[in-house]
Amino acid sequence: MARVFITGSADGLGKMAAELLIEQGHKVVLHARSKTRAEETKRNVPQAQAVVVGDLSSIAQTRSVAEQVYALGTFDAVIHNAAVGYREPQRVETVDGLSHVFAVNTIAPYVLTALISKPKRLVYLSSMLHQNGDPTLEDLTWQSRAWDGEQAYSDTKLHNVLLAFGIARRWPGVLSNALEPGWVQTKMGGAEATGDLDQAHRTQVWLAASDDPEALVTGEYFYHLRRKGTLPAARDVSKQDQLLAICERLSGIALPE
Predict the structure, then answer these.
(1) Known catalytic membership, residue 70
(2) Which helix (H) or strand (E) holds 242?
(3) In this model, does residue 195 exceed pLDDT 60?
(4) CA atoms within 13 A of residue 104's CA, in its CB half-sphere
(5) N or C: which end of the chain has fewer CB within 10 A?
(6) Does the pLDDT of residue 191 top 80, yes or no?
(7) Among positive and negative, which fits the CA dihedral 98, 102, 106, 112?
(8) CB 32 within 8 Å of CB 56
(9) From 86, 157, 221, 239, the catalytic residue
């Protein structure tokens, strides 16, 4: 039986993953953006051990989420599910001066990874759109570039793969992997999505808790329980280290060795 923390689990794929883990007999701690959402989450998933609260667009609140999780003890796995999509029509700046998409999708999983006690497994949700991400890692906060919501989202989904692979290399005792759930009809995916919703949450559950030898790997990328290729730049060690250094500089939080 595993103990798993899932970010962004008030609804969508995070909630679906939580329900499947609970069905399999695992213990789950959930996360919601606000107290109101947390109360709703407790009602929707009453079997969850706890719900931690914090807006991941704020570094201070993300640090608070990490502290709440830390106080609950050690976890076997952390699923970095929380994300915002590509539909923001203009650059939204956070309290930390970052773009909203970059803050939630890139900085938050980095901060949580750095501050939560090392679990046995880390799972980062990416997207097929990571293939369109900009591997130069220039102007990640979109202060100079003309805003493009889909490109900003694609960039962060590449960042998620770089984070997963960089952590896998830095922390050999932790199984760190990334995956794409497919384009499915969630609040983020929209009604026009054509992917298989029933399969969208199963790979993260499998990577977090399965004893299947195929799941007990690190530094890999998956789609529907199978390994899949990535943008070649995701395997570039220098790019992994560059992103980790940028995240450390912008967050003020160092990744433990």
Answers:
(1) no
(2) helix 237-251
(3) no
(4) 22
(5) C
(6) no
(7) positive
(8) no
(9) 157
